[in-house]
Structure formats: structure tokens, C-alpha cells
Amino acid sequence: MSDQTDQEMRDKLFEALENVIDPELGIDIVNLGLVYEADLNDEGVAQVVMTLTAMGCPLAGTIVNDVKRCLSDVEEVKDADVNIVWNPPWSKDNMSRYAKIALGIT
């Protein structure tokens, strides 16, 4: 894939991930800044590196399943691997302006 095609695919994956809503906060995981990377390998497997707002999040399994479900709607994606990481740690600074406004954070 060319660099432009790689970037277009990343954009497509991030767009799909905007449909994954954090069940506790009601904001999508992209605007919350939880998704660090999303790429598609040559075998059609989407590889997502993301974090959660807190360790031990009881809804982690739900969010991972939602990520896989939303990515399955992308034509090029045959499967998805979701890697939850804790470094770098998430903070409210990761959030988009939209998410901060929606949650009343300044």
C-alpha cells in the first residue's frame, strides 16, 4: 500500500471507531482519546492499540466487542485485534474539544 492509501485506511478505521460509544461517558472512544493506533495489515486484520479511562474498567469486554463489531462494517477488514495498553496513561488532555465540551470539562 502507498502512504496515501495507508493514511486513507487509518482515517476509515478511525471513522468506524467513532461509532463505539463509551457506555459510562456516552462519548465515542475516538473523541475521548482512547484510540492510539488503528492500522490494517496485509491479511485484512485491523490492529487497534487503545487504552481505557481506568484500569479494571468493568466494561472493557463490552468496549472491545464494540470495536470489533464496528470494524467488521469496514469492507477491507476481515478480523480485528484489539490491544489494551496502559502506557501512555490516558488523561483528559487526550480528549477532543468536542468531548470536553460535551462532558463540561474545561
Automatic annotation (TrEMBL):
Protein name: DNA methyltransferase
InterPro entries, sorted: Fe-S_Maturation_MIP18, FSCA_dom_sf, MIP18-like
Residues annotated as domain MIP18 family-like: 11-83
Record-linked PANTHER family: FE-S PROTEIN MATURATION AUXILIARY FACTOR YITW
Alphabetical UniProt keywords: Methyltransferase, Transferase
Pfam families noted in UniProt: FeS_assembly_P
A Gene Ontology BP annotation from the UniProt entry: methylation
